[in-house]
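Quick one - inputs below.
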Amino acid sequence: MTFASQPWARPLPPSRLSRFSLLWLVPAVLFTALALPPAPPSTPPTPSLLPAPEAEQSPMPQAEGTETKPTPPSQTALPQPAQKLIRVGLTSRGGPVALWCKAPLVITDPAQPGRSLAVQAEEKVTFAFGAVAQVAVPGAVPGKANQFWSGPLQIRTASGTSGAWQSALVSRENATNEEFIRLTSDGANPRWGRPYRGALEVTPRRVVNVVEVEDYLKGVVPWEMGATAPLEALKAQAVCARSNLLAKMAVHRHAADGFDVCDFDHCQGYPGAANEKPATTLAVEQTKGLVLFYKGRVADAVYGTNSGGITASDDDVWRGKPTPYLRGVRDFSPKLHTTMAAVVKPQMTEDDWAAYCAQNLPAYAQPGAAQQTQLASRRATSRRVALLFQPSDLPEFYRWSRFVEPTTLAQALATQPALKVKMDSVTEIRIVERAPSGHIKKLAIFGVCFEKTPAPLPAIQTVAVRQETSTEPPATGNRQPATGKPVSVVLQGDSQIRAMLSGRLGSTTALPSSTFVALPQRDETGALQGWILKGAGWGHGVGMCQRGAQNHAREGWDARRILQHYFCGVEVQKMD
Ligand SMILES: [Zn+2]
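Output:
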C-alpha cells in the first residue's frame, strides 16, 4: 500500500506543482567516457566556506535538525527543473579524501570535456588536497596524475550507460550496497568509510553528494530519529525532513558554498546510506512527496530531540518575526497526567519553573524505560556519553543538571569580546525574561571588575553587588576586594545563553536547552561556590518534539495528527 492511497495524502494543486519544480537542481553537464590524455594543470577552485570539521558521531540521536532559521534568499540562479537532485555538502576533516567502491567507477572532469578516468572495482582513489591538488589512482601514469585536476571532479559508478549523472542515478534504483561509493576523509581504510547513494563531486576543499531527494531522506530519517521508533512517528519525521529540506533550499542558505544543504545539524544530519534501515526507508517511501504547507507555502518543519514537555514558539528562541505555524504547545494531557497539570500552571512563577525542571514529570516528551536502559549501558561503555550525561540526567536530557563555577562563567564571558564586559568574578545569575515554554529569553549576569590587579584577599570582605530588585538572598560572605567595581551583562537568546552557561570552558557542548533554573550554592561560611542549573529538554524546543511524536504514535496517533499537533494550521500535501 502506498502512502498516497491514505486519505490525508491529498494531491497538490497544479499551482503549487510549478513552484515546487523550481526547487530541484540538476547538473547540466553530460560526460563522455574516454581515455585520459595529459593536460596542463590549472588553478584549483576557491576554498569553500564549509563549517567546522566533523565532530565524532553523536552518542545519542542528534539533538535537533535545525538550530537556526533560514537565511534570506540570495541572488543565485534558480535551480533548473528536472530530476529532483540535490547537492549535499559533506563535512570534511581536512585530510585526503579516499573513495572506494565494489563496482567500477568513472571520474570525469567537466572542465575538460571528453576526458575521463576509469577506475576498476575495489580500487582506491585518493584525492590529496593542498597547494597542488591531485588525484592518485592505481594504474595512473606516474607524474601525470595531478594533470587530470582542473576543477570539480565527478565520480559515479560506471553502470550508467550514457555516462550522464542521470544514468548513474537511474541505475541507482536497483543498486545494491555494493554499488554505493564509499568515502573516507581521514586516511583510514576506505572499507570503513560511509557509503553514499548517487554520485560524488570532489573539489580541493569539499566533497558534494549529488543525490535524489528521496534517497537523501532515507539517510536523514534514521539519523535524526532512529529506526526503533513507531512507523507513524517515522513517517512524521520523514515529512518534516522533506519539508525542512525544501524550505532551506528555497532560501539558498548554502549558495556561497556551492551546494544546497550541509550534512550536519546546521541543516539536517545525513551520514549517507550508512544508517539506512528497512523501517525508516519504509517511512520515506510511504510518505513519498508529502510536504507540510502553511497557506500555500512549504513550511519549515523544524524539529528537536526533546522539548522537556512544552514546545517553544520560534520567536522566543530565535530572532525574527513569529512564524504562525511554529507556536509553542503544552505537550501533555491534563486528564492523563495530573501531576504535570498541577505543576504547569497558567501563570508560572520562578518557583513553579524550579519545580518543573526538577521533577521527572509525565509528559509526551518523557523517555521510557527502554531509553533509560539504553542510556545506562551507553554511559557504561562510552567515555564520551559518560561525560556528556551526568548520572542524574534522564535520557535525551528530558531533565538534566549542570554545575557552573563563577570563575568558569567569567572566563566564558571573557572569550566573547562582543559582549563588551570585563568581569573578574561573577556573583549572581538572574532570570530577566522567560517565555511561556520556560525558555529563558534574557538572563543577567552580575559580578565585579577589579580596577587594577587585585591585592591578596583580606580575611573576609564583602562587596554588595546585588541590585535592590534582586529576589535572591544577599551574597554575604562572598570574598571580593573592596576595589571591585560592580558590572553586569545581559545575555539574550537561546544559543548565547546555552553557550555561555555551559560550565565547560573550552568545550563545544552547550547546555542542552535554555529551559532551566539557576540555584546558587554556598559553603558553610556563605561564600558562593557556584550554581546548580536544573533544566528540561534537549534542543531549541521549536516544532516537532521527536520523543513526543514517538509517544503520541504509541498512543495511536497517525503521522498527520502528530504533525498537525506540533505545527499549527498546516496541511500535508503531496507534490510530485
Ligand atoms: Zn547547513
